[in-house]
């Protein structure tokens, strides 16, 4: 049997061990709640020793093992409450090739890929501007308050991004900010604590990384979506109207002439894809490409959710 904790750090350490291999974000939320509650109790009873306060907390709040079990139970109840299911396994382990069509995670990831360029641009601009101004203002009296305000904004943005990631990609992310108890600490100690917190730097690294990732995600999503949808729409429209909407020539899109030995093939394809059977085949190819697009989106969503979990969730 584990001995009862006599200090805040012991309580938090036992609580962390009690969760085992639970999602890191769930553990982070539980640790934040427990730390905030215990610190409030310590502040309300300044005349008591930390061990006595911990004994009262355990009696009223619960042991670390009891708290961990309660959080696990609540997580199981809430796990299916969101629009997109939790990401617990690799995408390839869920359903067959066409099963992705009914998988909400694929659509959530696709939406996130389309949003990523705007999010990445904002995060990158905010982080670079904030860092630059914080360093520049250090010689002025407003430098220290501005730096603390910027670090606080990074933590808030991390929480917001976590909610977006959890909502669209399905991975469990923190739902509250970690507690901050300045007490009688000087402003220099607060700055030191903020700068020594790895979450501060890992969150900034995530925001800087989001710009190139956002550009790549948006480009992939738009290219595959536009190609597949245009292929399907063009084929169906040609079947209905009888117009030759599928055009092929000896000149590619960059104005480069296609080699002469390929011209007969292009002529045959042009003729075939403007017949009813050819248009049906082309429409089916567009649908396959659309399904492939959903697979790519789901895979990217899985990978990005792991990146977010590593950089934004710290115990």
Verbal overview:
- With 315 residues, the chain is mostly helical.
- It folds into two domains: 1-78, no CATH class; 93-315, no CATH class.
- 70% of the residues lie in helices and 0% in strands.
- The chain is built from ten helices and no strands.
- It has helices at 8-19, 24-44, 50-60, 64-78, 104-136, 143-169, 187-196, 198-241, 263-272, 276-312.
- Helix 6 packs across helix 10 (276-312) and helix 8 runs antiparallel to helix 10.
- It starts with 7 loop residues before the first helix and ends with a helix.
- Residues 250-258 have low confidence and may be disordered.
Offer a quick outline of the entry:
Helices cover 70% and strands 0% of the residues. The chain is built from ten helices and no strands.
The portion of residues assigned to helices is 55-70%
> Would you identify the regions where 5 or more consecutive residues have pLDDT less than 50?
250-258
> Average pLDDT value?
80
Distance between the termini: 25 Å
Strand content: under 5%
**Rg over CA atoms:** 27 Å
Structural class: mainly alpha
What number of structural domains do the residues give? Answer: 2
SSE pattern? HHHHHHHHHH
Count of helical regions = 10
Main beta-sheet strand count, sense and barrel state: none
- Overall geometric form: elongated
How many strand units?
0
């Amino acid at each position: 049997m584990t001995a009862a904790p006599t200090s805040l750090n012991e309580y938090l350490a036992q609580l962390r061990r009690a969760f085992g291999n639970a999602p890191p974000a769930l553990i982070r939320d539980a640790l934040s709640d427990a730390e905030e509650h215990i610190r409030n109790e310590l502040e309300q009873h300044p005349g008591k020793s930390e061990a006595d306060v911990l004994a009262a907390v355990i009696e009223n709040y619960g042991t670390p093992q009891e708290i961990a079990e309660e959080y696990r139970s609540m997580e199981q109840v809430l796990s299916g409450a969101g629009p997109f299911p939790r990401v617990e396994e690799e995408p390839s382990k869920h359903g067959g090739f066409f099963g992705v069509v009914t998988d909400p995670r694929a659509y959530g990831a696709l939406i996130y890929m389309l949003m990523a360029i705007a999010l990445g641009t904002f995060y990158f601009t905010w982080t670079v501007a904030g860092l630059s101004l914080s360093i520049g203002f250090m010689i002025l009296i407003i430098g220290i308050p501005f730096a603390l305000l910027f670090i606080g904004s990074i933590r808030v943005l991390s929480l917001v991004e976590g909610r977006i990631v959890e909502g669209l990609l399905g991975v469990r992310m923190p739902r509250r900010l970690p507690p901050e108890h300045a007490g009688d600490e000087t402003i220099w100690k607060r700055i030191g604590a903020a700068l020594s917190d790895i979450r501060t730097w890992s969150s900034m690294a995530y925001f800087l990384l989001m710009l190139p990732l956002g550009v790549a995600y948006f480009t992939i999503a738009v290219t595959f979506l536009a190609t597949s949808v245009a292929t399907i729409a063009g084929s169906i429209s040609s079947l209905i109207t009888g117009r030759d909407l599928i055009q092929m020539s000896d000149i590619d899109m960059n104005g480069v002439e296609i080699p002469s030995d390929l011209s007969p093939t292009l002529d045959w394809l042009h003729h075939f894809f403007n017949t009813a059977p050819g248009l049906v085949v082309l429409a089916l190819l567009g649908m396959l490409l659309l399904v492939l697009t959903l697979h790519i989106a789901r895979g990217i969503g899985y990978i990005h959710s792991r990146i977010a979990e590593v950089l934004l969730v710290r115990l």
